[in-house]
Amino acid sequence: MGCLDQRAVRLGALVETFAHADAKIVRKSVAATLALPALDSCADARTLKNITLPSDPALREKVQSLRDRLATLWATAASGHDWQALKPMGALVDEARAAGHDPLLAEALIVYARIRSPFDPEGAEAVYEEAFKRGEAIHNDELAAEAAIQLITITGAVNHHFDTGERWARVADTTVERGVPLREPGNTVQRETIQ
Predict the structure, then answer these.
(1) Is 153 exposed, middle or buried (0-12, 13-18, 19+ CB in 10 A)?
(2) Which residues have CB under 8 Å from 193's CB, separation 6+?
(3) Architecture field, domain 2-194
(4) pLDDT at 68 (0 to 100)
Protein backbone atom coordinates (compact mmCIF):
# COMPACT_ATOMS: atom_id res chain seq x y z
CA MET A 1 0.00 0.00 0.00
CA GLY A 2 2.88 2.36 0.74
CA CYS A 3 4.24 1.78 -2.76
CA LEU A 4 0.84 2.49 -4.31
CA ASP A 5 0.51 5.58 -2.11
CA GLN A 6 3.82 6.88 -3.47
CA ARG A 7 2.65 6.26 -7.03
CA ALA A 8 -0.57 8.15 -6.21
CA VAL A 9 1.43 11.08 -4.81
CA ARG A 10 3.51 11.23 -8.01
CA LEU A 11 0.34 11.08 -10.12
CA GLY A 12 -1.31 13.76 -7.96
CA ALA A 13 1.70 16.05 -8.38
CA LEU A 14 1.50 15.63 -12.15
CA VAL A 15 -2.25 16.30 -12.19
CA GLU A 16 -1.67 19.46 -10.13
CA THR A 17 0.96 20.58 -12.64
CA PHE A 18 -1.43 19.92 -15.51
CA ALA A 19 -4.12 21.96 -13.75
CA HIS A 20 -1.92 25.05 -14.21
CA ALA A 21 -0.62 24.14 -17.67
CA ASP A 22 1.08 26.54 -20.00
CA ALA A 23 2.07 25.77 -23.61
CA LYS A 24 5.28 24.00 -22.57
CA ILE A 25 3.45 21.73 -20.12
CA VAL A 26 0.87 20.86 -22.77
CA ARG A 27 3.65 19.92 -25.22
CA LYS A 28 5.34 17.72 -22.60
CA SER A 29 2.17 16.22 -21.09
CA VAL A 30 2.27 12.89 -22.91
CA ALA A 31 5.97 12.34 -22.18
CA ALA A 32 5.44 13.31 -18.53
CA THR A 33 2.53 10.90 -18.21
CA LEU A 34 4.54 8.09 -19.76
CA ALA A 35 7.39 8.78 -17.32
CA LEU A 36 5.21 7.95 -14.31
CA PRO A 37 6.64 4.97 -12.39
CA ALA A 38 5.15 1.61 -13.26
CA LEU A 39 2.65 0.08 -10.87
CA ASP A 40 3.97 -3.44 -11.42
CA SER A 41 7.03 -2.70 -9.28
CA CYS A 42 4.65 -2.49 -6.31
CA ALA A 43 4.18 -6.26 -6.64
CA ASP A 44 7.94 -6.91 -6.38
CA ALA A 45 9.03 -7.80 -2.84
CA ARG A 46 12.60 -6.63 -3.46
CA THR A 47 11.40 -3.23 -4.65
CA LEU A 48 9.08 -2.88 -1.69
CA LYS A 49 12.03 -3.13 0.71
CA ASN A 50 13.44 0.00 -0.95
CA ILE A 51 10.49 2.22 -0.12
CA THR A 52 9.89 1.30 3.50
CA LEU A 53 9.53 4.37 5.66
CA PRO A 54 11.61 4.68 8.85
CA SER A 55 10.07 3.46 12.10
CA ASP A 56 11.01 6.64 14.02
CA PRO A 57 7.91 8.90 13.81
CA ALA A 58 9.83 12.18 13.39
CA LEU A 59 12.11 10.78 10.70
CA ARG A 60 9.14 9.08 9.02
CA GLU A 61 7.34 12.43 8.81
CA LYS A 62 10.46 14.13 7.45
CA VAL A 63 11.00 11.45 4.80
CA GLN A 64 7.34 11.59 3.73
CA SER A 65 7.51 15.37 3.46
CA LEU A 66 10.65 15.13 1.32
CA ARG A 67 9.03 12.47 -0.89
CA ASP A 68 6.03 14.75 -1.44
CA ARG A 69 8.34 17.60 -2.46
CA LEU A 70 10.30 15.22 -4.66
CA ALA A 71 7.08 14.24 -6.45
CA THR A 72 6.24 17.91 -7.04
CA LEU A 73 9.70 18.73 -8.38
CA TRP A 74 9.68 15.62 -10.57
CA ALA A 75 6.30 16.67 -12.04
CA THR A 76 7.56 20.21 -12.65
CA ALA A 77 10.64 18.94 -14.49
CA ALA A 78 8.86 16.18 -16.40
CA SER A 79 6.35 18.77 -17.61
CA GLY A 80 9.03 20.90 -19.24
CA HIS A 81 9.96 23.28 -16.44
CA ASP A 82 13.18 21.50 -15.58
CA TRP A 83 15.17 24.72 -15.20
CA GLN A 84 12.77 25.92 -12.49
CA ALA A 85 13.13 22.59 -10.65
CA LEU A 86 16.93 22.43 -10.81
CA LYS A 87 17.95 24.56 -7.81
CA PRO A 88 15.18 23.34 -5.46
CA MET A 89 16.04 19.75 -6.44
CA GLY A 90 19.67 20.27 -5.43
CA ALA A 91 18.49 21.55 -2.05
CA LEU A 92 16.17 18.55 -1.66
CA VAL A 93 19.07 16.16 -2.33
CA ASP A 94 21.02 17.87 0.46
CA GLU A 95 18.05 17.48 2.82
CA ALA A 96 17.60 13.83 1.83
CA ARG A 97 21.30 13.23 2.50
CA ALA A 98 20.95 14.87 5.94
CA ALA A 99 17.87 12.73 6.73
CA GLY A 100 19.99 9.61 6.23
CA HIS A 101 17.25 7.54 4.54
CA ASP A 102 19.10 5.75 1.72
CA PRO A 103 16.07 4.80 -0.42
CA LEU A 104 14.90 8.42 -0.47
CA LEU A 105 18.39 9.69 -1.25
CA ALA A 106 18.84 7.23 -4.11
CA GLU A 107 15.51 8.27 -5.64
CA ALA A 108 16.28 11.97 -5.16
CA LEU A 109 19.68 11.55 -6.81
CA ILE A 110 18.23 9.90 -9.91
CA VAL A 111 15.60 12.62 -10.30
CA TYR A 112 18.20 15.35 -9.75
CA ALA A 113 20.51 13.79 -12.34
CA ARG A 114 17.66 13.62 -14.89
CA ILE A 115 16.88 17.29 -14.32
CA ARG A 116 20.51 18.39 -14.36
CA SER A 117 21.67 16.45 -17.41
CA PRO A 118 20.33 18.81 -20.11
CA PHE A 119 22.12 21.77 -18.52
CA ASP A 120 25.25 20.18 -17.10
CA PRO A 121 26.00 16.67 -18.42
CA GLU A 122 29.35 16.49 -16.63
CA GLY A 123 27.77 17.44 -13.30
CA ALA A 124 24.91 15.00 -13.92
CA GLU A 125 27.47 12.26 -14.58
CA ALA A 126 28.73 12.45 -10.98
CA VAL A 127 25.15 12.45 -9.66
CA TYR A 128 24.24 9.41 -11.77
CA GLU A 129 27.36 7.63 -10.52
CA GLU A 130 26.32 8.25 -6.92
CA ALA A 131 22.73 7.21 -7.72
CA PHE A 132 24.08 3.98 -9.23
CA LYS A 133 26.18 3.22 -6.15
CA ARG A 134 23.29 4.00 -3.80
CA GLY A 135 20.89 1.93 -5.93
CA GLU A 136 23.28 -1.01 -5.83
CA ALA A 137 23.76 -0.65 -2.06
CA ILE A 138 20.03 -0.83 -1.35
CA HIS A 139 19.46 -3.51 -4.05
CA ASN A 140 17.26 -1.26 -6.17
CA ASP A 141 18.12 -2.78 -9.53
CA GLU A 142 15.68 -0.60 -11.48
CA LEU A 143 17.28 2.61 -10.21
CA ALA A 144 20.82 1.27 -10.67
CA ALA A 145 20.01 0.16 -14.23
CA GLU A 146 18.60 3.58 -15.15
CA ALA A 147 21.69 5.31 -13.76
CA ALA A 148 24.00 2.97 -15.69
CA ILE A 149 22.04 3.45 -18.92
CA GLN A 150 22.15 7.23 -18.58
CA LEU A 151 25.89 7.03 -17.87
CA ILE A 152 26.38 5.18 -21.17
CA THR A 153 24.83 8.15 -22.94
CA ILE A 154 26.68 10.86 -21.04
CA THR A 155 30.12 9.27 -21.00
CA GLY A 156 29.98 7.78 -24.50
CA ALA A 157 27.76 9.93 -26.69
CA VAL A 158 28.10 13.32 -25.00
CA ASN A 159 31.64 13.29 -23.57
CA HIS A 160 33.12 10.88 -26.16
CA HIS A 161 34.74 8.70 -23.48
CA PHE A 162 33.88 5.53 -25.36
CA ASP A 163 35.83 3.16 -23.11
CA THR A 164 33.96 4.44 -20.06
CA GLY A 165 30.67 4.28 -21.97
CA GLU A 166 31.42 0.68 -22.90
CA ARG A 167 32.16 -0.16 -19.25
CA TRP A 168 28.80 1.35 -18.22
CA ALA A 169 27.13 -0.67 -21.00
CA ARG A 170 28.50 -3.88 -19.45
CA VAL A 171 27.34 -2.75 -16.00
CA ALA A 172 23.88 -1.94 -17.39
CA ASP A 173 23.70 -5.35 -19.09
CA THR A 174 24.56 -7.08 -15.83
CA THR A 175 21.97 -5.07 -13.92
CA VAL A 176 19.27 -5.70 -16.51
CA GLU A 177 20.08 -9.43 -16.49
CA ARG A 178 18.99 -9.47 -12.85
CA GLY A 179 15.46 -9.04 -14.15
CA VAL A 180 14.97 -5.28 -14.38
CA PRO A 181 12.29 -4.45 -16.93
CA LEU A 182 13.43 -1.71 -19.29
CA ARG A 183 10.76 0.92 -19.90
CA GLU A 184 11.10 3.41 -22.70
CA PRO A 185 9.50 6.35 -20.84
CA GLY A 186 11.96 6.13 -17.96
CA ASN A 187 14.67 7.70 -20.06
CA THR A 188 12.60 10.46 -21.66
CA VAL A 189 14.49 13.43 -20.23
CA GLN A 190 17.93 12.26 -21.30
CA ARG A 191 16.81 10.96 -24.68
CA GLU A 192 15.24 14.30 -25.60
CA THR A 193 18.42 16.09 -24.60
CA ILE A 194 20.55 14.11 -27.01
CA GLN A 195 18.23 14.31 -30.03
Answers:
(1) buried
(2) 117, 118, 121
(3) Alpha Horseshoe (1.25)
(4) 94
